[in-house]
Design brief:
Helices cover 72% and strands 3% of the residues. It is mainly α and 319 residues long.
């Protein structure tokens, strides 16, 4: 916190710099190559998922439509952060203008929230597929699927606009230009303000509870109904399929929501900015990467479609 009187004495900065990722020169190049490799793997994995879903008619179902949209969100989500991070990781503190910082924050929060909403939508889809199998095709129409994705994006845009506007209208101290993070995220930027940020933190907690806690409880509720339905399935094969589908999605949800909760819902008094950076690395790199690996490795339909596509490509090349 900073005294309000200092607002009059300090001009508002127009540019910011991120904290140096590592001050050890020997670590800079290996870290750059590691994060570049992870970024390229995320792009490749998600692009393959989108291509497989749209190239095979057997995957033209609601769950794979949602999965392809999730993949697209992950591509844009990491692209908003990683290229700028890579440009700074070699030690040069390249300045970012205030409008650029605001744009990165807006798109990062929008895409992260859309990710969470899509996971909730996918949980509802699994609930309908397993608990209301006979009505599934009647309820989950293509029109409804598009409307659910559009609603997830629209709600995320609304929440992100409110948060970004609230933070960027804070009076910022001229002598505090370094953001103690590797991106313009919601938690670190308000600490550059020259005024009380309790209201901003309260708003952040409310939005975090709405996006993370409420959605997580809804997803857990759907998993309870799904589990009860699975136990009533007589077929061993059907029970195995239903359990595999639900457990894969629940693994992704736990990974995504636990990391988000640690960053956005922990009390600031118990938060280390260094820990925030480490957790942010997890949901910037590992979560998008593991999300798709989990869906690929645990999903027989996707694996079969991918195998057929590779075999078909190899056969066409040899002919």
């Amino acid at each position: 916190m900073f005294a309000g009187s200092r607002v009059l004495n300090q001009p508002c900065p127009t540019e910011f710099v991120f904290r140096v990722f590592t001050a050890v020169p020997e670590f800079q190049v290996p870290l750059f190559l590691l994060f570049l490799l992870l970024y390229l793997m995320i792009l490749c994995n998600n692009t393959v998922i989108i291509w497989v879903v749209h190239a095979h008619s057997s995957l033209c179902t609601p769950i794979y439509f949602f999965l392809s949209n999730l993949s697209f969100v992950e591509i844009v989500y990491t692209t908003v952060v990683v290229p700028l991070m890579l440009s700074n990781i070699l030690g040069a503190q390249n300045p970012i203008p205030l409008v650029g910082c605001g744009a990165q924050m807006f798109f990062f929060v929008t895409l992260g929230s859309t990710d969470c909403f899509l996971l909730a939508v996918m949980a509802y889809d699994r609930y309908m597929a397993i608990c209301h199998t006979l009505h599934y095709t009647l309820v989950m129409t293509p029109k409804l699927c598009v409307q659910m994705v559009a609603s997830a994006l629209g709600l995320a845009l609304f929440l992100s606009l409110q948060l970004t506007s609230l933070i960027l209208t804070l009076p910022l101290c001229g002598h505090h230009r370094e953001i103690n993070h590797f991106l313009c995220d919601v938690p670190p930027v308000p600490w550059l303000a020259c005024t009380d940020i309790c209201v901003n933190q309260a708003v952040l907690y409310v939005v975090g509870i709405l996006v993370l806690t409420v959605l997580f409880l809804l997803i857990c509720g759907s998993c309870v109904f799904i589990t009860c339905a699975i136990l009533r399935i007589c077929s061993t094969e059907g029970r195995r399929w239903a359990f595999s589908t639900c457990s894969s999605h629940l693994t992704v949800v736990l990974l995504q929501y636990s990391c988000g909760s640690l960053v956005y819902l922990r009390p600031r008094s118990s938060t280390s900015e260094h820990e925030d950076c480490q957790i942010s690395l997890v949901y910037t790199f590992l979560t998008p990467l593991l999300n798709l690996l989990i869906y690929i490795l645990r999903n027989k339909d996707v694996k079969d479609a991918l195998r057929n596509a590779i075999m078909g490509k190899a056969a066409s090349d040899t002919s």
